[in-house]
Amino acid sequence: MTAMEADFVIVGSGSAGAALAYRLSEDGRNSVIVIEYGGTDFGPFIQMPAALSFPMNMSRYDWGFSSEPEPHLGGRRLVTPRGKVLGGSSSINGMVYVRGHAHDFDHWADEGAAGWAYADVLPYFKRMETAHGGEDGWRGTDGPLHVRPGKQRNPLYKAFVEAGRQAGFETTPDYNGSKQEGFGVMEQTIHHGRRWSVANAYLRPALKRQNVSLVNGFARRVVIENQRAVGVEFEARKQIQVVKAKREVIIAASSINSPKLLMLSGIGPAAHLKEHGIDVVADRQGVGRNLQDHMELYIQQESILPITLYSKLNLFSKALIGAEWLLFKSGLGATNHFESAAFVRSKPGVDYPDIQYHFLPAAIRYDGKAAAKSHGFQAHVGPMRSKSRGSVTLRSADPREKPAIRFNYMSHADDWADFRHCIRLTREIFGQQAFDPYRGREISPGKDVQSDDELDAFIREHAESAFHPCGTCRMGRADDEHSVVDPECRVIGVEGLRVADSSIFPRITNGNLNGPSVMTGEKAADHILGKQPLAPSNQEPWINPRWRVSDR
Ligand SMILES: Cc1cc2nc3c(=O)[nH]c(=O)nc-3n(C[C@H](O)[C@H](O)[C@H](O)COP(=O)(O)OP(=O)(O)OC[C@H]3O[C@@H](n4cnc5c(N)ncnc54)[C@H](O)[C@@H]3O)c2cc1C
Fold first, then answer.
1. What is the rounded distance in angstroms from the CA atom of residue 150 to the CA atom of residue 94?
2. Which of 141, 228, 399, 432 is spaced 20 to 30 A from 341 at the CA atom?
3. Of 312, 307, 290, which Cα lies nearest the Cα of 471?
4. How are beta strands 267-268 and 282-283 bridged, if at all?
């Protein structure tokens, strides 16, 4: 193998790209080059779990995208962080581990992603994991991705789960097992006290192999000759070069950069490409469309007992926590602090959860800004299946220019009713007996925010992205004009080119997206190698028998 030619060229070392690099090189028969623009993930900002709010705000590690002014959110531009570092977004994310609900994947298959139903993807979730805990028979035991339940040492974590039970909701011992629905302990991609990004789990082990190498560069476009991808043009040290693919090019550059790269390569809506003077290789209407995300609100309550992380936010405590983590990889530095969760249904007639909770024993924004000035706790809550859809489009044919991102958040009337319900439901849960020893005043939205109009104003001003954009290179039937890739992740209309990452999700899944993105890389690798997919599972997920008549 010469440095600039390989059987497989992968763009992106993120959640899907790293898994692809690992699996495509595993048997030693194929050479793999990974092109990654981001640099090293060395150092505590990334490796120390509790430092999670730093890398997403650092231009060194983040692409620095934000949305266009969002028309339904008072023209706010929302930040759209994406990892620009080894391990991609798995190196800057919140380390919450969720597979998604069984019905999400069944829906993918119904929408044309044949072979991606829950029975098909469950074996891949098992292959990728080593779960330290979880339900017997449902979890992986020897995969590269180590996941574990939160330790829940702070009593507020258990109070949250107990409050859910007192309100009449289900509890679940393992939302990544047979039963997603309910309140329970949250899982983390943390191992030996460190962020277990895909760089740690997959990329570094793959790079130890002779047949894998990493090229640090900025991919500009796929080189296509006679409708066949033959390489990738990239820029490194101010020089434009090409790395050749003997077999295939695989784009795993995220839901923002993958559609951008396709469009720069002439694959996308023809009229849009022509507008920017790009020669059309394949007219695919779906490229950049179908953008989806989760939004969330932080519902904050004061704690009258001084047991929250508020006492740890001063510099002295932070230094102690940092020192313990540096020396022993233990203590409060070794957790992301999201240690309780819930997946619930918003109303009778909804057959599987459509609301997710993250619970935190502190009142603070996700990005670390604007901590409350007192002891407090908070729930991050949001609907899981918004009907709003947005787009990623080019501003110009210049690869260096950031794309235009329009989420159209809250553009569907149901979004408003769903969010109002989320706020009222959280108040009901925080109002349970389990919180009696702790509950002080409501910090946010605050007790005066009650009517629909007041809640809507709060939502408009405070709803934030949960950082789960996806869907912009949708997978589906090859004869569906909205599909970008077929169920084997092949770009429709071009040979030798695949996309495999969160951009191919037909619809957003129930929970955080690192897990399903890694699974996508794992499964795509088998398709690329022409392997027989893993045998489908016959395990049946738990569905609430009361779903038609009750929300709990
Ligand atoms: C701040 C934040 C918090 C999150 N929290 C969680 C969480 O707690 N749990 C969870 O499950 N999910 C979380 N997510 C979401 C999850 O991490 C992502 O959905 C997932 O990592 C996406 O994987 P991907 O493979 O599609 O893309 P990515 O992991 O983003 O990988 C894309 C890679 O491609 C590289 N790349 C892109 N363009 C180019 C180019 N032109 N040239 C070279 N390289 C390029 C990028 O640098 C990057 O390394 C979070 C995301 C963010 C940003």
1. 13
2. 141
3. 290
4. parallel
Q: Which atom of ligand 1 is nearest to the CA of 94?
A: 8
Distance, CA 88 to ligand 1 centroid (Å)?
5
- Which residue, 412, 390, 384, 359, is CA-closest to 511? 384
403 CB less than 6 Å from ligand 1? no
**Can you give the three-state secondary structure of 265-320, one letter per residue?**
CCEECHHHHHHCCCCCCEECCCCCCCEECCEEEEEEEEECCCCCHHHHCCHHHHHH
Is residue 15 in contact with ligand 1, taking CB distance under 6 Å?
yes
Catalytic site includes residue 191: no
| Per-residue pLDDT tens over the stretch 397-415 | 999 999 999 999 999 999 9
Residue 62 dihedral angles phi and psi, to the nearest 5°:
-125, 140
Token pair for 47: 């490796």
**pTM for the complete prediction?**
0.98
DSSP states of 398-412:
-TTSPPEEE--TT-S
Segment 163-217, tens digit of pLDDT: 999 999 999 999 999 999 999 999 999 999 999 999 999 999 999 999 999 999 9
Helices 452-462, 413-430: inter-axial angle, 10-degree rounding: 100
Of 462, 468, 482, 527, catalytic: 468
CA dist 241 and 147 (Å) reads 39
